[in-house]
Structures are given as structure tokens and as C-alpha cells.
Amino acid sequence: MTDDRKLRVSKIRNGTVIDHIAGGQALNVLAILGIDGTSGESVSVAMNMPSDRLGKKDIVKVEGRELSQNEVDVLSLIAPAASINIVRDYEVVEKHRVERPEVVVGVLECPNHNCITTEDEPVESRFAVVDDGVRCEYCDTIIRNDLPAHILAD
Amino acid sequence: MRHDHIISAKQLTRADIEEVLDHAADIAEDPGAYADRHADTLLGMLFFEPSTRTKMSFTTAMKRLGGDIVDMGSVESSSVKKGESLADTVRVVEGYADALVLRHPMEGSSKMASEFVDVPLVNAGDGAGQHPTQTLLDLYTIRENAGFDDLTIGIMGDLKYGRTVHSLAHALTNVDAHQHFISPESLKLPRSVRYDLHQEGADVREHTELDDILPELDVLYVTRIQRERFPDESEYREVAGQYQIDGETLDVAKDDLTVMHPLPRVDEIAHEVDDTDHAKYFQQAHNGVPVRMALLDLLLGGESER
């Protein structure tokens, strides 16, 4: 029996299903997506479900929203095995695995308060993806842990 | 020179370094031959932080090449005081000058500024980040005195915030150098520099005591421990004294040890060392002119004679 047949989470009509998130990371995925429950989006979360591939996995279903490439890029850093399913009218119309990008632009805020990207300058933050984290391409600061804490506010 | 801008020592290959150093050596040998090399060329000086040596040596270098400078002046007297962004400032000044030199208190400032201009931009120090032209003159001085082959160098002091240290450490991965870093625990190399040195496979060791390594060194590069970085004055006092060198300290050093310092010094090197053959820090400062002449000449389209 596959994982999916074991699951009993209701289908969504339009939106995104993020599957194969490592167990326990779903709340960080929500943080990356800026979902804190206040904006009225309908969200389903399943945590620590049995998974053949991951042992335990989390699933997030977001009604009425398709993820941007930037969001997928950052998501890939904390959930490298995740798959993204775009759903329209109850049908999965796109399905793909996340891929670690070489850079993430305009998504994370540099934690170095003396980095020029934290000033009021016409420049977007730009982080190179390195082996075990990301690195600011302006000041070289490396972030290894707690990436969601550095996501830029909208 | 294949670079449009000089932002970080990390961008400099061994070939780039040797091109600048060889050209600087030619210039030092016959500076008069370059006196009209860049007549009518203007260098825009954008110093958002106080600077004496770096600013004066860039000014001297440009004038010795026959050109001149246009100087933004102090931040207090400039449009920056009115809230102008750095991106706007450099875009305006590139209309006045053929190349720009930027010193700014924030890390990454030169990289960002270079993205807004078409004229060559040289980083003259960005916060605690990089100071690549200091590194080129440091390397020139090292090559003159100790060579690049099987070099054992100790770099001591504030390794965490010292931009000259960060640049030099990166550049030394291009030569056959064994790098020893000596500092208090609280001022060790930042994570990003360690990462690069590790990636480059550099031979690096860290120490808290100079005595552990001094007898093996060909070069000792001393930097100021910056009192203002310590949250507690007593913590500063505890470590500062450990990193002073005087004539007695150097008794165990090799006879031909080269002692360097990017200056200004406070009390890291006793004045009695100045009169020894070890002291090369004033020579190092003077080397800033031919090295910066060479770099500007190459960036402005000159060619090395070699």
C-alpha cells in the first residue's frame, strides 16, 4: 500500500499540495509561505505521516494559491525531497520535485545588520546556495540553520 | 587585467596578482616613465569613512600617473547627509570620473555599487569585509622580502573584524603558503573566511599564543586589536597585552622574519622594533603607491610591459 492511499486528507479544488516534506518541517514550510492563519487561506497540514521514502513525512495543502518559483526555491532548502502538485479544479495539472537552486534572490534577509542589502538601497538580497546553507553574495555571511527566520516580510 | 572592478581578493587569481605585482615592480624601478601615462584621467574618491593612508596613496598614485582626483569630501558635507543612497551617489559621480575608489562602512557596499556603474570601481574597504588593494601591496611586500615559495606566515590580532586579514587570507590561497592565525578566541576568523579557506584546501592552523608558532614564521602580519569591539574593557585588557611584540618577543624568531602591519598601530608593535631588520611596515605602506599605480594603470587600459 502506498503512502497516498493511507492518507485521508481532503482534496483541494485549486491550489498547491506540497508532499514529501521531511517529518516535522511543515510549520517551517508554512513560515516560508508566510502562512500564519491570519490571511484566511484554507490550509491542511498533516505531520509525521508514515512514508516509504522518508520514514516520516509532512504534507501541506494550500487552497487557492500556486507557489512562486522563489517560494519553491527557498522551500527546497529545508525540504529537498518535497514534491509540488499544482491542483486546478480537483485535478493535478503539474507535478514536480523541488530542485536546489544556485541562488535565491529577494527572499531571505541577510542577518548581518552591517550588510548593504539591509539598507535602503535599490538592491535585492541575493544568496548563493552552498553545501549546508546559503551565503550572502554581498557580505559573505553564511546562514546554516533556521532559514525560515530570515525570510523577508512581504 | 581582465576585471572590470576590483571588489574582493577572492576574484584575484595567481596570474592577476603577479600581473599587478610585476607591473608595480616596473613602475617602482622607473616611476618617471609613467608620469604622463594617464594625463586628463580623473579618479573619483568616495570615502564614506575616515582614511589617511589608503586615500593618500590612491591620490598619489593617480597624480603620479599624470591624472587627478575628484573628491566627494566628508560625508557631513555631501549629499549623503541629505539621505542620498549609495547607488545614486556612484551613478552621479561616474559621470565626473573615469574610475571610482569607494570606502564605505557596510559590507558588500562595493559589490552593490559596482552593479550601478560602467566605469571601473575599486573597493578601498567595505566595513569588516574586504580590502583587496591593501592585500596587493601586502603581497608585494611579502614577495620582496620572503618570496611566495614555501612561505610560513602568521597573521595575528583582530581576525574577526579585520578586513585586511580576510583579503590577505583569501589571496594567500593562491601561493604556496602555510597560514597560522593567532588571536583571542573571541576574535577568530569569521565563518565565511574559514569556509573559503577550507574549500580551497588551504593549509591553515589557529593559535591563541604567538609563542606556539613564532620560531617557524617567515612573515608575521600584525593587526590592531580593536578595543571598540569588546563589550567589556577588562576583557580587552586581558587579551591586548598578549598580542604586543617587542625586541624580546622576537628573540626566538628567525633572523630574516619580516614583520608587517597595515597601520595604524597603537601598541601592538613596540617602537624599538622599528629599528630592527624585521620591521617592514613603513616599506609596506610606501609600496601602496606603485601597487595602486599598477592597478589603476591596468584597470584604465594600460598594459604590463612583461
Helix/strand-derived category of chain A reads mainly beta
Low-confidence stretches of chain A: none
Secondary structure tally: strands of chain A: 9
| Mean of residue pLDDT values of chain A | 87
Biggest protein-protein contact in the assembly = A-B, 19 and 21 residues
Indicate the low-confidence ranges of chain B by residue numbers: none
Chain oligomer state: heterodimer
Approximate strand percentage of chain B:
15-25%
Alpha-carbon distance between the termini of chain B?
13 Å
The shape of chain A, in one word, is globular
What can you tell me about this protein's structure?
In chain A, 14% of the residues lie in helices and 34% in strands. Chain A has a 5-stranded antiparallel β-sheet, covered by helices on one side. Chain A starts with a helix and ends in an 11-residue tail after the last strand. Chain B has 306 residues and is α/β, with parallel strands linked by helices. Chain B is built from 10 helices and 9 strands. In chain B, the strands form 2 sheets. In chain B, strands 7-6-5-8-9 form a 5-stranded parallel β-sheet. In chain B, α5 packs across α10. The longest helix of chain B has 16 residues. At the A-B interface, loops of A face α4 and α7 of B.
